[in-house]
Amino acid sequence: MRSGDGQTAVREFTITVIAPVNGPALSIRTSLLPPALAGSSYSPALATSGGNGSQVTWTMLGGALPPGIALGTGGLLSGVPTAAGTYSFTVRAANSGQSDQKAFTIRVVPDDLSRFNITRVDVATVSSAISPHVQAAIAGWESAIRGDLVHEEIPSGFFSPTFCDGFGDVVNGTWVDDVIIMVNIASIDGRGKILGQAAPCGISDNALTVVGTLTLDADDLQPLVGTQTLTDIIFHEIGHVLGFGTLWSAGATDLVTGEGTSDPRFTGPQALREWQALGGIGSVPLENTGGSGTADAHWREATFRTEIMTGFVSPVGTPNPFGRITIAAMADLGYVVDYDAADSYALPGGAALQAPPADPLGWDVADPNPIVMLMPDGTARLIPR
Ligand SMILES: [Zn+2]
Question: For 347-384, what is each residue's pLDDT tens digit?
Protein backbone atom coordinates (compact mmCIF):
# COMPACT_ATOMS: atom_id res chain seq x y z
CA MET A 1 0.00 0.00 0.00
CA ARG A 2 1.41 3.32 -0.93
CA SER A 3 0.41 6.67 0.59
CA GLY A 4 0.79 10.07 -1.05
CA ASP A 5 4.17 10.80 0.55
CA GLY A 6 5.96 7.67 -0.72
CA GLN A 7 5.86 5.67 2.49
CA THR A 8 5.02 1.97 2.36
CA ALA A 9 3.34 -0.27 4.89
CA VAL A 10 2.84 -3.99 4.67
CA ARG A 11 0.52 -6.16 6.71
CA GLU A 12 -0.43 -9.75 6.31
CA PHE A 13 -4.01 -10.92 6.57
CA THR A 14 -5.33 -14.44 6.73
CA ILE A 15 -8.65 -15.46 5.27
CA THR A 16 -9.93 -18.81 6.41
CA VAL A 17 -12.45 -20.44 4.09
CA ILE A 18 -14.80 -22.61 6.11
CA ALA A 19 -17.38 -25.10 4.88
CA PRO A 20 -21.03 -24.01 5.02
CA VAL A 21 -21.98 -24.62 8.64
CA ASN A 22 -24.81 -26.57 10.13
CA GLY A 23 -26.74 -27.56 7.02
CA PRO A 24 -28.56 -30.83 7.52
CA ALA A 25 -26.15 -33.73 7.41
CA LEU A 26 -26.16 -35.97 4.35
CA SER A 27 -28.45 -38.83 5.14
CA ILE A 28 -29.80 -41.82 3.21
CA ARG A 29 -33.53 -41.16 3.03
CA THR A 30 -34.64 -44.44 1.44
CA SER A 31 -35.92 -46.70 4.20
CA LEU A 32 -36.90 -49.88 2.37
CA LEU A 33 -36.45 -51.33 -1.10
CA PRO A 34 -39.28 -53.05 -2.96
CA PRO A 35 -39.33 -56.78 -3.49
CA ALA A 36 -38.00 -57.75 -6.92
CA LEU A 37 -39.59 -60.25 -9.29
CA ALA A 38 -37.17 -62.83 -10.68
CA GLY A 39 -36.78 -62.37 -14.43
CA SER A 40 -38.35 -58.89 -14.51
CA SER A 41 -36.59 -55.55 -14.48
CA TYR A 42 -35.86 -53.77 -11.23
CA SER A 43 -35.10 -50.05 -11.02
CA PRO A 44 -35.63 -48.42 -7.63
CA ALA A 45 -33.59 -45.32 -6.87
CA LEU A 46 -31.80 -44.76 -3.58
CA ALA A 47 -32.17 -41.22 -2.31
CA THR A 48 -30.51 -38.91 0.20
CA SER A 49 -31.65 -35.88 2.10
CA GLY A 50 -29.57 -33.02 3.49
CA GLY A 51 -25.99 -32.64 2.36
CA ASN A 52 -24.06 -29.60 1.14
CA GLY A 53 -25.34 -29.65 -2.42
CA SER A 54 -22.32 -31.35 -3.94
CA GLN A 55 -22.64 -34.47 -6.05
CA VAL A 56 -23.54 -37.64 -4.14
CA THR A 57 -21.80 -40.84 -5.15
CA TRP A 58 -23.06 -44.28 -4.15
CA THR A 59 -20.87 -47.29 -3.53
CA MET A 60 -21.28 -50.78 -2.12
CA LEU A 61 -19.71 -51.25 1.30
CA GLY A 62 -20.46 -54.92 1.88
CA GLY A 63 -22.84 -57.79 1.40
CA ALA A 64 -24.19 -58.80 -1.99
CA LEU A 65 -26.79 -57.50 -4.40
CA PRO A 66 -29.07 -60.05 -6.05
CA PRO A 67 -27.37 -61.59 -9.10
CA GLY A 68 -28.31 -59.47 -12.10
CA ILE A 69 -28.68 -56.22 -10.15
CA ALA A 70 -26.10 -53.45 -10.10
CA LEU A 71 -25.79 -50.20 -8.14
CA GLY A 72 -25.08 -47.14 -10.26
CA THR A 73 -22.94 -44.35 -8.81
CA GLY A 74 -26.05 -42.11 -8.95
CA GLY A 75 -27.94 -44.45 -6.60
CA LEU A 76 -30.09 -46.26 -9.15
CA LEU A 77 -30.36 -49.99 -8.67
CA SER A 78 -30.98 -51.66 -11.99
CA GLY A 79 -30.98 -54.92 -13.84
CA VAL A 80 -32.97 -58.13 -14.00
CA PRO A 81 -32.62 -60.36 -10.94
CA THR A 82 -32.03 -63.95 -11.91
CA ALA A 83 -32.42 -65.90 -8.68
CA ALA A 84 -35.06 -65.83 -5.96
CA GLY A 85 -33.79 -65.28 -2.44
CA THR A 86 -33.08 -62.65 0.15
CA TYR A 87 -30.02 -60.45 -0.33
CA SER A 88 -28.59 -58.07 2.25
CA PHE A 89 -25.98 -55.43 1.63
CA THR A 90 -24.72 -52.07 2.85
CA VAL A 91 -24.32 -48.97 0.70
CA ARG A 92 -22.48 -45.73 1.26
CA ALA A 93 -23.55 -42.34 -0.03
CA ALA A 94 -20.84 -39.68 -0.03
CA ASN A 95 -20.35 -36.15 -1.29
CA SER A 96 -17.42 -33.82 -0.73
CA GLY A 97 -16.87 -34.11 2.98
CA GLN A 98 -19.97 -35.97 4.14
CA SER A 99 -21.18 -39.54 4.02
CA ASP A 100 -23.82 -41.90 5.32
CA GLN A 101 -24.25 -45.64 5.12
CA LYS A 102 -27.21 -47.97 5.50
CA ALA A 103 -28.05 -51.65 5.29
CA PHE A 104 -30.78 -52.87 2.95
CA THR A 105 -32.40 -56.14 2.04
CA ILE A 106 -33.88 -57.03 -1.33
CA ARG A 107 -36.17 -60.00 -1.50
CA VAL A 108 -36.37 -61.53 -4.98
CA VAL A 109 -39.64 -63.43 -5.29
CA PRO A 110 -40.06 -66.19 -7.86
CA ASP A 111 -42.18 -65.47 -10.87
CA ASP A 112 -45.33 -67.55 -10.53
CA LEU A 113 -48.13 -67.15 -13.03
CA SER A 114 -49.69 -70.46 -11.97
CA ARG A 115 -51.55 -68.94 -9.05
CA PHE A 116 -52.68 -65.71 -7.41
CA ASN A 117 -49.82 -64.35 -5.32
CA ILE A 118 -49.84 -61.76 -2.59
CA THR A 119 -46.41 -60.35 -1.73
CA ARG A 120 -46.22 -58.92 1.74
CA VAL A 121 -43.97 -55.96 2.51
CA ASP A 122 -43.70 -55.01 6.17
CA VAL A 123 -43.25 -51.26 6.46
CA ALA A 124 -43.21 -51.49 10.25
CA THR A 125 -41.83 -54.14 12.54
CA VAL A 126 -44.29 -57.03 12.59
CA SER A 127 -43.45 -59.15 15.62
CA SER A 128 -43.00 -62.90 15.43
CA ALA A 129 -46.22 -63.22 17.45
CA ILE A 130 -48.27 -61.26 14.90
CA SER A 131 -46.56 -62.41 11.71
CA PRO A 132 -48.24 -65.86 11.56
CA HIS A 133 -51.65 -64.17 11.69
CA VAL A 134 -50.70 -62.08 8.65
CA GLN A 135 -49.44 -65.15 6.80
CA ALA A 136 -52.60 -67.14 7.57
CA ALA A 137 -54.80 -64.30 6.33
CA ILE A 138 -52.79 -63.99 3.11
CA ALA A 139 -52.97 -67.75 2.55
CA GLY A 140 -56.75 -67.60 2.97
CA TRP A 141 -57.11 -65.05 0.17
CA GLU A 142 -54.59 -66.85 -2.04
CA SER A 143 -56.84 -69.90 -1.89
CA ALA A 144 -60.05 -67.98 -2.58
CA ILE A 145 -58.74 -66.04 -5.58
CA ARG A 146 -57.30 -68.14 -8.37
CA GLY A 147 -56.99 -65.71 -11.22
CA ASP A 148 -56.05 -62.25 -12.38
CA LEU A 149 -52.62 -63.68 -13.02
CA VAL A 150 -50.88 -60.59 -14.25
CA HIS A 151 -47.59 -58.80 -14.06
CA GLU A 152 -47.68 -55.07 -13.56
CA GLU A 153 -44.78 -52.66 -13.63
CA ILE A 154 -44.54 -49.82 -11.15
CA PRO A 155 -42.04 -47.51 -12.84
CA SER A 156 -39.23 -45.85 -10.91
CA GLY A 157 -40.64 -42.72 -9.24
CA PHE A 158 -44.25 -43.67 -10.05
CA PHE A 159 -45.80 -43.06 -6.64
CA SER A 160 -45.04 -39.86 -4.77
CA PRO A 161 -43.73 -40.53 -1.26
CA THR A 162 -46.98 -39.30 0.28
CA PHE A 163 -49.04 -41.89 -1.60
CA CYS A 164 -49.99 -45.29 -0.17
CA ASP A 165 -50.26 -43.95 3.39
CA GLY A 166 -46.81 -42.38 3.05
CA PHE A 167 -45.11 -45.52 1.70
CA GLY A 168 -45.38 -44.79 -2.03
CA ASP A 169 -41.59 -44.78 -2.42
CA VAL A 170 -41.31 -48.31 -1.10
CA VAL A 171 -42.82 -49.94 -4.19
CA ASN A 172 -41.42 -47.77 -6.97
CA GLY A 173 -39.26 -49.43 -9.60
CA THR A 174 -40.35 -53.04 -9.57
CA TRP A 175 -42.74 -55.54 -11.13
CA VAL A 176 -45.63 -57.07 -9.22
CA ASP A 177 -47.14 -60.57 -9.40
CA ASP A 178 -50.03 -60.18 -8.53
CA VAL A 179 -50.42 -57.83 -5.55
CA ILE A 180 -48.12 -56.14 -3.05
CA ILE A 181 -49.61 -55.47 0.37
CA MET A 182 -47.72 -53.15 2.66
CA VAL A 183 -48.32 -54.08 6.28
CA ASN A 184 -48.08 -51.28 8.82
CA ILE A 185 -48.65 -51.29 12.56
CA ALA A 186 -49.35 -47.88 14.07
CA SER A 187 -51.52 -46.23 16.66
CA ILE A 188 -54.85 -45.26 15.09
CA ASP A 189 -57.23 -44.32 17.88
CA GLY A 190 -56.21 -46.06 21.09
CA ARG A 191 -57.84 -49.15 22.52
CA GLY A 192 -61.03 -50.41 20.84
CA LYS A 193 -63.05 -48.59 18.17
CA ILE A 194 -61.06 -48.71 14.92
CA LEU A 195 -58.95 -51.90 14.78
CA GLY A 196 -57.47 -51.38 11.37
CA GLN A 197 -57.75 -49.66 8.04
CA ALA A 198 -56.90 -50.74 4.54
CA ALA A 199 -57.29 -49.88 0.88
CA PRO A 200 -55.66 -50.23 -2.50
CA CYS A 201 -53.51 -47.31 -3.63
CA GLY A 202 -52.55 -48.57 -7.10
CA ILE A 203 -54.77 -50.55 -9.45
CA SER A 204 -54.28 -52.08 -12.88
CA ASP A 205 -56.09 -50.83 -15.95
CA ASN A 206 -58.71 -53.53 -15.38
CA ALA A 207 -59.37 -51.87 -12.02
CA LEU A 208 -57.96 -54.61 -9.76
CA THR A 209 -55.45 -54.00 -7.00
CA VAL A 210 -51.72 -53.98 -7.69
CA VAL A 211 -50.60 -52.28 -4.46
CA GLY A 212 -52.37 -51.56 -1.22
CA THR A 213 -51.76 -50.78 2.41
CA LEU A 214 -53.04 -52.35 5.57
CA THR A 215 -52.61 -50.66 8.94
CA LEU A 216 -53.35 -52.44 12.20
CA ASP A 217 -53.97 -50.40 15.30
CA ALA A 218 -51.00 -51.11 17.55
CA ASP A 219 -53.11 -50.38 20.63
CA ASP A 220 -55.53 -53.22 19.88
CA LEU A 221 -53.19 -56.03 18.86
CA GLN A 222 -51.67 -57.42 22.01
CA PRO A 223 -54.80 -58.90 23.63
CA LEU A 224 -55.72 -60.53 20.29
CA VAL A 225 -52.43 -62.35 19.66
CA GLY A 226 -53.05 -66.07 19.30
CA THR A 227 -56.78 -65.71 18.60
CA GLN A 228 -58.57 -66.57 15.37
CA THR A 229 -60.13 -63.13 15.72
CA LEU A 230 -56.81 -61.41 14.92
CA THR A 231 -56.37 -63.52 11.78
CA ASP A 232 -59.97 -62.66 10.86
CA ILE A 233 -59.37 -58.93 11.31
CA ILE A 234 -56.29 -59.05 9.07
CA PHE A 235 -58.18 -61.19 6.54
CA HIS A 236 -60.97 -58.60 6.55
CA GLU A 237 -58.47 -55.78 5.94
CA ILE A 238 -56.88 -57.66 3.06
CA GLY A 239 -60.39 -57.93 1.60
CA HIS A 240 -60.46 -54.12 1.49
CA VAL A 241 -56.98 -54.01 -0.06
CA LEU A 242 -58.23 -56.34 -2.82
CA GLY A 243 -61.21 -54.08 -3.47
CA PHE A 244 -64.05 -55.16 -1.17
CA GLY A 245 -65.86 -51.89 -0.42
CA THR A 246 -62.98 -49.85 -1.84
CA LEU A 247 -63.22 -50.47 -5.60
CA TRP A 248 -66.99 -50.89 -5.92
CA SER A 249 -67.40 -47.36 -7.24
CA ALA A 250 -63.90 -46.76 -8.62
CA GLY A 251 -63.46 -45.77 -12.23
CA ALA A 252 -65.92 -47.60 -14.46
CA THR A 253 -66.92 -50.08 -11.74
CA ASP A 254 -70.39 -49.42 -10.31
CA LEU A 255 -71.66 -52.13 -7.98
CA VAL A 256 -73.55 -50.10 -5.36
CA THR A 257 -76.88 -48.29 -5.32
CA GLY A 258 -78.15 -45.97 -2.60
CA GLU A 259 -74.75 -44.87 -1.27
CA GLY A 260 -75.18 -42.51 1.67
CA THR A 261 -78.83 -43.48 2.18
CA SER A 262 -80.43 -45.68 4.84
CA ASP A 263 -80.58 -48.57 2.37
CA PRO A 264 -77.40 -48.99 0.31
CA ARG A 265 -77.30 -52.21 -1.75
CA PHE A 266 -74.66 -54.21 -3.61
CA THR A 267 -75.77 -55.05 -7.13
CA GLY A 268 -73.08 -57.39 -8.47
CA PRO A 269 -74.80 -60.34 -10.17
CA GLN A 270 -72.71 -63.07 -8.59
CA ALA A 271 -73.20 -61.78 -5.05
CA LEU A 272 -76.89 -61.37 -5.90
CA ARG A 273 -77.06 -65.07 -6.80
CA GLU A 274 -75.46 -66.05 -3.47
CA TRP A 275 -77.71 -63.65 -1.54
CA GLN A 276 -80.77 -65.22 -3.07
CA ALA A 277 -79.39 -68.69 -2.33
CA LEU A 278 -79.19 -67.60 1.31
CA GLY A 279 -82.88 -66.68 1.15
CA GLY A 280 -82.41 -62.96 0.58
CA ILE A 281 -84.71 -60.85 -1.56
CA GLY A 282 -83.73 -57.98 -3.84
CA SER A 283 -80.10 -56.88 -3.96
CA VAL A 284 -77.60 -57.32 -1.15
CA PRO A 285 -77.93 -55.01 1.90
CA LEU A 286 -74.84 -52.96 2.73
CA GLU A 287 -73.99 -51.33 6.04
CA ASN A 288 -75.94 -48.14 6.64
CA THR A 289 -74.36 -47.09 9.94
CA GLY A 290 -70.89 -46.28 11.20
CA GLY A 291 -70.10 -43.36 8.92
CA SER A 292 -67.62 -43.04 6.09
CA GLY A 293 -65.42 -46.09 5.58
CA THR A 294 -67.90 -48.40 7.31
CA ALA A 295 -71.24 -47.56 5.69
CA ASP A 296 -71.59 -48.60 2.01
CA ALA A 297 -68.37 -50.67 2.22
CA HIS A 298 -69.44 -53.76 4.20
CA TRP A 299 -72.27 -56.26 4.33
CA ARG A 300 -74.99 -54.98 6.65
CA GLU A 301 -74.25 -56.13 10.20
CA ALA A 302 -77.93 -56.31 11.14
CA THR A 303 -78.51 -58.81 8.32
CA PHE A 304 -75.24 -60.74 8.10
CA ARG A 305 -74.05 -60.56 11.71
CA THR A 306 -70.91 -62.68 12.00
CA GLU A 307 -69.93 -62.84 8.30
CA ILE A 308 -66.33 -61.72 8.00
CA MET A 309 -67.00 -58.72 5.76
CA THR A 310 -69.54 -56.96 7.93
CA GLY A 311 -68.17 -53.75 9.44
CA PHE A 312 -68.17 -54.97 13.04
CA VAL A 313 -65.95 -57.69 14.43
CA SER A 314 -67.53 -60.35 16.62
CA PRO A 315 -66.16 -60.79 20.15
CA VAL A 316 -63.23 -63.18 20.61
CA GLY A 317 -64.51 -66.75 20.57
CA THR A 318 -67.24 -66.10 17.99
CA PRO A 319 -66.25 -67.26 14.48
CA ASN A 320 -66.39 -64.76 11.61
CA PRO A 321 -67.22 -67.08 8.67
CA PHE A 322 -65.99 -66.30 5.14
CA GLY A 323 -69.21 -66.68 3.17
CA ARG A 324 -69.63 -67.60 -0.48
CA ILE A 325 -71.28 -64.21 -0.87
CA THR A 326 -67.98 -62.45 -0.11
CA ILE A 327 -66.15 -64.61 -2.65
CA ALA A 328 -68.93 -63.78 -5.13
CA ALA A 329 -68.43 -60.06 -4.52
CA MET A 330 -64.76 -60.50 -5.43
CA ALA A 331 -65.86 -62.28 -8.63
CA ASP A 332 -68.11 -59.31 -9.38
CA LEU A 333 -65.01 -57.08 -9.22
CA GLY A 334 -63.35 -59.28 -11.85
CA TYR A 335 -61.29 -61.81 -9.90
CA VAL A 336 -61.35 -65.50 -10.82
CA VAL A 337 -62.42 -67.20 -7.60
CA ASP A 338 -62.71 -70.59 -5.94
CA TYR A 339 -65.88 -71.05 -3.90
CA ASP A 340 -64.38 -74.10 -2.19
CA ALA A 341 -62.47 -71.64 0.02
CA ALA A 342 -65.71 -70.52 1.68
CA ASP A 343 -66.76 -71.41 5.21
CA SER A 344 -70.28 -72.66 5.76
CA TYR A 345 -72.46 -69.67 6.45
CA ALA A 346 -76.19 -69.04 6.80
CA LEU A 347 -78.09 -65.85 7.50
CA PRO A 348 -79.01 -65.76 11.16
CA GLY A 349 -82.67 -66.85 11.32
CA GLY A 350 -85.12 -63.99 11.49
CA ALA A 351 -82.29 -61.58 12.05
CA ALA A 352 -83.13 -59.16 9.29
CA LEU A 353 -84.29 -56.43 11.62
CA GLN A 354 -81.83 -56.89 14.45
CA ALA A 355 -79.69 -53.97 15.45
CA PRO A 356 -75.90 -54.18 15.38
CA PRO A 357 -74.46 -55.70 18.56
CA ALA A 358 -74.42 -53.21 21.41
CA ASP A 359 -70.78 -53.85 22.19
CA PRO A 360 -68.83 -55.07 19.19
CA LEU A 361 -65.12 -55.68 19.60
CA GLY A 362 -64.56 -52.83 17.20
CA TRP A 363 -64.62 -51.99 13.55
CA ASP A 364 -62.40 -50.75 10.81
CA VAL A 365 -62.21 -48.21 8.04
CA ALA A 366 -62.09 -48.90 4.35
CA ASP A 367 -59.47 -46.22 3.94
CA PRO A 368 -60.46 -43.26 1.73
CA ASN A 369 -56.92 -42.58 0.52
CA PRO A 370 -56.52 -41.74 -3.17
CA ILE A 371 -56.06 -44.52 -5.74
CA VAL A 372 -54.22 -44.29 -9.02
CA MET A 373 -54.54 -46.53 -12.05
CA LEU A 374 -51.29 -47.76 -13.59
CA MET A 375 -51.82 -47.18 -17.28
CA PRO A 376 -50.15 -49.51 -19.80
CA ASP A 377 -47.87 -46.68 -20.98
CA GLY A 378 -46.48 -46.22 -17.46
CA THR A 379 -48.47 -43.10 -16.66
CA ALA A 380 -50.83 -42.65 -13.72
CA ARG A 381 -54.49 -41.77 -13.73
CA LEU A 382 -56.13 -40.63 -10.49
CA ILE A 383 -59.32 -42.62 -9.90
CA PRO A 384 -62.39 -40.67 -8.85
CA ARG A 385 -64.15 -42.38 -5.96
ZN1 LIG B 1 -63.91 -53.27 6.95
Answer: 986 444 444 454 556 677 776 677 888 887 878 888 76
pLDDT (tens digit per residue) in 265-304: 999 999 999 999 999 999 999 999 888 888 999 999 999 9
Residues 44, 79, single domain; the answer is yes
Q: Is residue 2 part of a domain?
A: no
Q: Is the pLDDT of residue 13 over 80?
A: no
Q: Of the candidates 111, 141, 170, which is a domain's last residue? A: 111
What's the CA angle centered on 339, arms 337 and 341, to 5 degrees?
100
Range of the domain at 139: 112-385
**Residue 95 falls within a domain, yes or no?**
yes
**144 shares a domain with 86:** no
Compute, in angstroms, the gap from residue 107 CA to the centroid of ligand 1: 30
**Is residue 48 within 8 Å of residue 28, measured between CB atoms?**
yes
Residues 59 and 188 in one domain: no
Per-chain residues with Cβ under 5 A from ion ligand 1? 364
Q: For the segment 76-124, what is each residue's pLDDT rounded down to a tens digit?
A: 999 999 999 999 999 999 999 899 999 999 999 998 888 999 999 999 9
Cα–ligand 1 centroid distance for 149 (angstroms): 25
Q: Please give the single-letter amino acid code of residue 8.
A: T
Axis crossing angle, helix 131-144 with helix 228-241, rounded to the nearest 10:
50
Domains: count for the chain: 2
Q: Considering 84, 111, 138, which residue would you say is the last residue of a domain? A: 111
Dihedral sign from CA coordinates of 374, 377, 380, 385: negative
**336 Cα–ligand 1 center, Å:** 22
* Pair 145, 45 in one domain: no
C-alpha of 329 from chain center = 21
Same domain? For 180 and 287 the reply is yes
C-alpha distance from residue 76 to each of 42, 156, 172, 203, 363 (Å): 10, 9, 12, 25, 42
User: How far, in Å, from the CA of 218 to the mean position of ligand 1?
Assistant: 17
Three-state SS annotation for 260-291: CCCCCEECCHHHHHHHHHCCCCCCEEECCCCC
Largest CA distance in the chain: 117
Tell me the C-alpha to C-alpha distance, in Å, between residue 8 and each of 5, 11, 80, 265.
9, 10, 73, 99
